[in-house]
Automatic annotation (TrEMBL):
Record SUPFAM superfamilies: CBS-domain pair, FAD-binding/transporter-associated domain-like
Residue stretches making up the CBS domain: 71-130, 136-196
Protein name (Swiss-Prot/TrEMBL): Magnesium and cobalt efflux protein CorC
InterPro entries listed in its UniProt record: CBS_dom (IPR000644), CBS_dom_sf (IPR046342), CorC_N (IPR054115), FAD-bd_PCMH-like_sf (IPR036318), FAD-bd_PCMH_sub2 (IPR016169), Ion_transp-like_CBS (IPR044751), Transptr-assoc_dom (IPR005170)
Organism lineage string: Bacteria, Pseudomonadati, Pseudomonadota, Gammaproteobacteria, Chromatiales
Superkingdom of the source species: Bacteria
Its job: Plays a role in the transport of magnesium and cobalt ions.
Keyword entries, A-Z: CBS domain, Cobalt, Magnesium, Repeat, Transport
Gene3D superfamilies in the record: 3.30.465.10, CBS-domain (3.10.580.10)
């Protein structure tokens, strides 16, 4: 006898999918490959959308990561020296736009604590009050490079801190990691109010200086700057610059290519984010 219910096919598919997930958890698998396959199938059947699939995959991915895998490396850490007066480190705060900074004593291996920028406000509004940077520091949380990222996220939430200093087996500082670094592994890049508005790939700062998103399509960049970078080599200008460096450059590094000077304005440990492009002063091709 045939089944006349038009929804029976979809109902069976959903039941089968749920049964497979239940079976995976009941069996307590030793690896995540089966669960990843189920997530991919659920997306293919439109039971979950692509964004949900990506987040689920991100959650699974961090369970295999260690702090060393996603930390901001030592060379890219923005720090403040404990003996610096406010007028010296204020430009550092304005340039980097972070909410927290490690405070060091002479070098990055000697962390005195963490400065939360908002803690300065009460003193900035009362210039007559005497205070020292040391007085307002929060304790620094120290973790080993081998710390599991999922366990660290749990610590961040339960203990209500947002930054940890990562040290190697000898106790030397190798980097730092924030709760945002972990969340970006799950939900993707988190843009804030200081990031460039999407679509503003090329912004003119001066007659010969431009701010360019590293993700600017190469054909757009070539057209704007009358360059001829090979589109078979990379699809974005960031790819061209990264290939030319031959390593992941840090903020402030520069290189000359195609008659232009490229200076890294913003980067993380995974990719270039923003470039400053400087044209020769004799070149007026895009000075409109």
């Amino acid at each position: 006898m045939s089944d006349d219910n038009p929804h029976s096919g979809r109902g069976s598919a959903v039941k089968s999918w749920l049964e497979r997930i239940a079976a995976i958890f009941t069996a307590e698998p030793q690896d995540l490959s089966d669960l990843q396959a189920i997530i991919a199938e659920a997306n293919a059947r439109a039971l979950i959308d692509t964004d949900t699939k990506g987040m689920l995959q991100g959650v699974l991915a961090i369970s295999k990561m260690r702090a060393r895998d996603i930390m901001v490396p030592r060379s890219q850490m923005a720090t403040i020296d404990i003996d610096q007066p406010l007028e010296e480190y204020l430009p550092i705060l304005l340039e980097n736009n972070h909410s927290r900074y490690p405070v060091v004593n002479e070098d990055k291996d000697h962390i005195e604590g963490i400065l939360i920028v908002k803690d300065i406000l009460q003193y900035a509004l009362k210039p007559q009050t005497e205070w020292q940077l040391r007085d307002i520091l929060r304790p620094a949380v120290i973790i080993p490079e081998s710390k599991r990222v999922d366990a660290l996220l749990k610590d961040f939430r339960q203990q209500r801190y947002h930054m940890a200093i990562v040290v190697d087996e000898y106790g030397g500082v190798s980097g730092l990691i924030t709760i945002e670094d972990i969340l970006e592994q799950i939900v993707g890049e988190i843009e804030d109010e200081h990031d460039e508005i999407e679509g503003s790939d090329i912004r003119k700062l001066g007659s010969h200086v431009f701010l360019v998103s590293a993700l600017t399509p190469l054909d757009e960049f070539n057209e704007a700057f009358a360059t001829s970078f090979d589109e078979d080599e990379a699809s974005t200008i960031g790819g061209i610059v990264l290939h030319a460096f031959g390593h992941m450059p840090v903020k402030g590094e520069s290189i000359s290519l195609g008659g232009l000077t490229f200076k890294v304005n913003k980067a993380n440990n995974r990719r270039l984010v923003q470039l400053q492009v400087i044209k020769p002063k004799t070149d007026t091709a895009t000075d409109e």
